[in-house]
Specification:
about 240 residues; mainly alpha; 11 helices
């Protein structure tokens, strides 16, 4: 919690830890895969809930918990593979692409089954509320751990598409778009921004067009974001271009 307060410049902002916990409990239990509401509508609803400073802290915790639990899950899966087969898989948080490329579908994509109960296309996507507040984060805290966690979730997302057999539907692309937007806004406020992590640099150098083509056969109320075609996302294409 101290780190999250530092992210916000704790002495300048009035924060209520009890309310932050209540917000987290609310969005954790009311939304996600169990909800009957489509993911885009869940994202809108959660974003309205996280509309103040305490909500910003809760949003930062959503991103951090997602990254932390995904890492623990992948470590456990890699250990299990080694126990059963003797095959050693290296899990590095700064770059999941080598792991994903080597393991392929032998490892389960962790973001759909996190112990914390957060769903990537609902609560995590809704943490894009950070995007509009990112300049405040950058000015008050400088380079911060939240940025690293955003990049981790983006890396997990795109590596899952490319190597893990994760279906690229409009909700998946919307998640990546929001993560890229958040990272870009935070970076834009930092005087001496950190070097982009290897998977992000690789993604920017050579993004496979097919990665951003949605599976139009996807059905169900929660897998349609209502956008005509994920390939029509100019923000994502622009921010993912050479740089």
């Amino acid at each position: 919690m101290r780190r999250l307060r530092q992210l916000l410049g704790g002495r300048r902002v009035q924060l209520n830890p009890g309310r932050q916990q209540a917000l987290l409990r609310d969005v954790r239990h009311r939304y996600g895969a169990r909800s009957q509401v489509r993911f885009p509508e869940q994202v809108e609803a959660i974003t309205r809930v996280l509309n103040d400073d305490d909500g910003l802290v809760a949003g930062a915790r959503i991103v951090s918990e997602t990254a932390d639990e995904a890492h623990v899950d992948l470590q456990a899966q890699a250990h299990d593979v080694h126990r059963r087969t003797g095959r050693r898989l290296l899990v590095h948080r700064r770059n999941y692409r080598p792991l994903s490329k080597e393991a392929g579908k032998a490892l389960r994509w962790p973001l759909f089954a996190l112990p914390c109960g957060l769903h990537p296309y609902a609560q995590v996507a809704a943490a894009a509320v950070l995007s509009s507040r990112a300049p405040r984060l950058g000015r008050e805290s400088g380079p911060n751990p939240l940025l690293a966690r955003v990049f981790e979730v983006l890396d997990l997302t795109t590596a899952g598409w490319e190597y893990g057999g994760v279906r690229v539907d409009t909700d998946a692309v919307a998640l990546a778009d929001r993560l890229i937007s958040t990272a870009g806004q935070v970076l834009a406020t930092i005087d001496d921004p950190p070097r982009l992590p290897p998977p992000v640099r690789e993604l920017m150098r050579a993004t496979a067009p097919s990665m951003f083509t949605t599976d139009r056969s996807v059905g169900g109320r929660r897998n349609q974001s209502g956008r005509e075609n994920a390939g029509d996302s100019p923000g994502l294409r622009h921010r993912s271009g050479p740089g």
